[in-house]
Amino acid sequence: MPMELSVLNIEGKESGKKVTLPAEIFGIEPNEHVVYLDVKHYLANQRQGTHKAKERAEVNYSTKKIKRQKGTGGARAGSIKSPVFVGGGRVFGPRPRDYDFKLNKKIKVLARKSVLSARAKENAISVLEAFTFQQPKTKSYLGLLQALSLNNSKTLLILDGHDSNVYLSSRNIPKAKVVTADSINTYDLINAERVLITETALPKIETLLSAKS
């Protein structure tokens, strides 16, 4: 069933307008497994994968046999590079690798729909009038959050397109993030306590998530 929300202005008051959240995006039964897969895929892509440890063949030590084979009373040893010695090479050490894995587009779309639907059921979505700032000012964005009583909450603001003034105003606020409708991801939607969507961004979200489903 479609959900109807009041559109708020940047002063946190109702503007008198209402919008209807499409049920096919904001009203489906959340699929927890695809959400898990999409978050796992996102976090895997954040890993640099540049870890490296030297193995036996790469340690820069002499290859001279360090002691005679027999008669020492201890185990035989042929190289100081052996992993059993301090400073020797590591056994099966980490090597540079890419942690990315294939995830179908339909799974990503379903994951985003699932999280948006869950957020809608939790009443954690607010729709704002389209706005901008005359210049980048952290104080302006803090004023917006204060008007919405979200000073200490993690927020995700979704705009219809890139707005440098709004983005730069939010950049120094630890719990605030600003993205465009075409770059939303499941991880950000889950991580935010409150999802703020501008009125003009809603049609773009609907178009993007409906076209690929």
UniProtKB/TrEMBL annotation:
Chain residue ranges for the region called Disordered: 48-77
GO cellular component, one term: ribosome
Keywords: Ribonucleoprotein, Ribosomal protein, RNA-binding, rRNA-binding
Superkingdom in the source lineage: Bacteria
Short name of one Pfam family: Ribosomal_L4
Residue spans crossing the bilayer: none
Functional description taken from the UniProt entry: One of the primary rRNA binding proteins, this protein initially binds near the 5'-end of the 23S rRNA. It is important during the early stages of 50S assembly. It makes multiple contacts with different domains of the 23S rRNA in the assembled 50S subunit and ribosome.
Family: Belongs to the universal ribosomal protein uL4 family.
Subunit note: Part of the 50S ribosomal subunit.
Entry protein name: Large ribosomal subunit protein uL4
UniProt source species: Ravibacter arvi
Name of the coding gene: rplD
